[in-house]
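Worked Example 4.2. Consider the chain below.
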Amino acid sequence: MLDERKAAVLRAVVQEYIRTAQPVGSGHVAAAPEVNVSSATVRNDMAALENEGYLHQPHTSAGRVPTDKGYRYFVDALVEPPHLQGTHAARVRSFFDTAHGELEAMLGQTSDLLSQLTDCAAVVIGPSDETTTLRSIQLVGLTDRLVLCVVVLSSGAVEKHTLELSSALSEEQLHAATAHLSAHLIGSTRTGPLTVPKSGSRPVDRVVDAAAAALDGPEPAEAEHVFVGGAARMVNAFDAIETVRQVLSILEQQFLVVTLVRDVLDRGLSVAIGTETGLEPLSECSLVVSPYSVDGEPVGTVGVLGPTRMDYPQALAAVAVVGRSLGRRLTEG
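Applying the procedure from the previous section yields the following structure tokens:
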């Protein structure tokens, strides 16, 4: 643990480096409102912080920059969860008040919003098959032998399946089939297997069996679970082209992104800094993540990936607010 004065010096260095991306000298730190000591004292404290691994001096006579350990202390020492302020908070409220349409479009737009709020690349992972349940089922007659099966999932996604029947079905039988499917499948997971007992009516059972078979099939091919917004913002975050190339390559690999996010959450972290991400190409990056819930159950994750000098209070606040708002919007349907 650092004493109060050294902690104040470290916070001042981190905040200034986040703002300028330039090594921070003792004069800037001594002028910080929370650091009420002389430049000489600041220089001694900065040297001590460097010896303890919190700061690094890029070259002789230069100021200091935070290390991963320094950023970690800064993040862990935040007194209370940051709040999204002013126009940013209003923008999130406005977005989710008017958000509508297919789930995939909403998640993609959410990733763009989060990227704009943080000036980082944003990741939104949609609900997985394992956590998605059937919320409602409706059969709609298109012709006397053609039926549209419309399913709303707990994630907010809507699936549509066209069923071709071997014989005509009346409206009454169609309503009976809808009721029978709803009674036995609402709350079932999307992954199945889905089993529906016989209703006692052969015409009703034909359409019920056809609907269950369609729902037991693979999820529609166009459904994607990972949405990345603002990846191009990473280009301006690093000087080394090779670093940019490697980071963008990782963001293009959905399985790798999901694995990375789940690993961070499994370790009980909301912020992974530098080498804590576990991926060498991301050693100069930090990842801020937060799960979101639908109907009280965690179903997905939102997060931002940026340089280790990202604005952590802003990123933490944006991820938390967007995650809560997304979960609430999907719960409301």
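The two ends are 47 Å apart (CA to CA). Residues 312-332 form the longest helix (21 residues). Compare this with Example 4.1 before moving on.
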